[in-house]
Amino acid sequence: MKSALRGAITTLAYNVSPAHRRWRQLLDGLRIDEAALTGPIEHPSARDFMICGSPRSGTTLLSAVLWQPPRVVTVSEPWDGLRMLPSELFASIRREIAATGELRRGRLDVEKLIETGEVVWGRDGDLVAPADVDDDFLLGVKWPAFWRYVPLLPHTKFLVCIRDPVEVITSYRTHGGDLVRGQDYDCSFNRVMNQHLRQATGDLALRRVLLYDYINARLLPYLEHPNVYVVRYERWFEERDTMVAEIGEFLGASLGPGRPAIRTPRKGAGSDDAELSLIRANCKTAPALGYPVGD
């Protein structure tokens, strides 16, 4: 009882804090509405691609691997990606690089990546990376939520990340934030999905399973399309060179192995029997994705 009271007091204090107000203002400014994306939209250029998939499926790692100027530049989760439609977003980033020779958006700490091979996040707008690029360089933007654009941009290349549901759903819980509640960021782009999941269940553990399924069920019909390459997370640990070569062929670029130091994670870290049972009973997309969690 005392623990619950302390938790409630902590939550209330955060909700009225200046930090929370700033966070809420940021989210309220992300005005692209998922419900309005019902028809064809303008494609970005042929040299632009997107990295997407469920959160916690390896999108950040892939973005770091593909930071390979002068041939390829990637931008990880710039907030402008939820303010601008894709063609405008990519054009604005290209203008920025052309004018400054730098990338000033995104959350990947490129300096740390180059120095140590670590994949470290920062705040969008706080990190500046030199971007000495070829005239015809490829530009990728990584946002997990960009899976919504797959049906709408059939001529744009997508790298779609997938990962074992036990690992992903456990990571939702341990990562915290909106994911622990089985939701994505509380902004217009995710509103329809978040409302659907809240209406489906009040059980947060079950809702985390449904979040994984909601996203992957909508991706599954497109995974064999020629403009989609599936990046299976588990392949990084045994087939890194092969997969990077395949991605390079898909994008039309000669790629090196990338800078990140890739370490095998502890399998199922933090999951218990109850959570495993819940996933096995309720995760419907796992078999089609190649993950037999019912075994």
Could you list some keywords that capture this structure?
11% strand; 11 helices; 295 residues; 5-stranded parallel β-sheet; alpha/beta; disordered N terminus
Can you describe this structure?
The protein is an alpha/beta fold and 295 residues long. It has a single domain, classed as Rossmann fold. Helix content is 40%, strand content 11%. It contains 11 helices and 7 strands. Helix 7 packs across helix 8. The longest helix has 16 residues. The radius of gyration is 19 Å and the shape is globular. The N terminus is likely disordered.
Topology:
Blueprint: H1 2-15, H2 18-28, E1 48-53, H3 59-65, E2 72-76, H4 86-100, E3 102-103, H5 110-116, E4 129-130, E5 138-142, E6 157-162, H6 165-175, H7 191-200, H8 204-219, E7 228-232, H9 240-251, H10 273-282, H11 286-289
Parallel strand pairs: 1-5, 1-6, 2-5, 6-7
Antiparallel strand pairs: 3-4
